[in-house]
Amino acid sequence: MAGSTPDYYKTLGVSKDASADDIKKAFRKLARTHHPDAGGDEAKFKEINEAYEVLSDPQKRKMYDQYGAAGGRIPNGGAGGFDFSGFGGWDEILDAIRGGGFGGFGGFDMGGFGGYGQPMPQKGRDVGISLEVSFEEAFNGAEKHVKARIPGSTAPETLNVKVPAGAVDGGRVRFREKGEPGVNGGPAGDLLVTTRIKPHPLYSRDGANVKMDLPVTIDEAVLGASIVVPAPDGSRLKVKVPAGTQDGFEMSIPGKGAPKLKQSGSGDLHLKVKIVIPREINEGQRKAMEAFAAAGDQKARPW
User: Are residues 184 and 119 in contact, defined by beta-carbon separation less than 8 angstroms?
Assistant: First the structure.
């Protein structure tokens, strides 16, 4: 490289006013791409490593900025705290910079890159399993037991899972360091237990809110009625259905849903009216319906 000075900033793809953090990030990205162990070119990796060794060290970078990158003449005596006596040319000065001739250089730990640095500890991968719970268990909370084969153990381990009141479908309980073993002395990953709520014949969940269909007969919808509804918390509620209620009409009962996770209070109970049309009617009902039809002028269609 006699007669020329490498542009370390260009090598790392950063500007000359780049911060130390920017230089480190650029080096990380390039090193992982060009490292020989990753299928990269060894000569290119050495150039990147050399550029980082110089630019990551404040003293080396200062000297390089003052004299190296500009390709200027060798200064007489000391400059910027460096003694250049005894160097025959810029090649020798750069060799000293690269080799640490001006004190310790700003090394970088290339974890996992073979002989270019000490392997860094890495956390193991997380492991996930599913836990099926009933609607009631998710609503009220429960303690369940699951068997999981912890990596590295010889037999399945029984774990106690505390399902919180108000647990939602897809919620997770985390067991620290019960996952895959770590690498190079790193901690093990975590075991993530995901709750899956089994379907219920009456209720469904929407977060802390509970949804429920409310079957209503034709006469109840037309005349209005008070209907007793079983709430998911075990209580029984009297709900007033207004006269003239239409199919699909929705009403809400505050505070009768599931407990809110990490909050006080509960969600709401949402009722959706489903008008039940009888498939068969007796003779008295038929006559009543015919009389009802004859007594009014009902129009269900706009045409």
Answer: yes
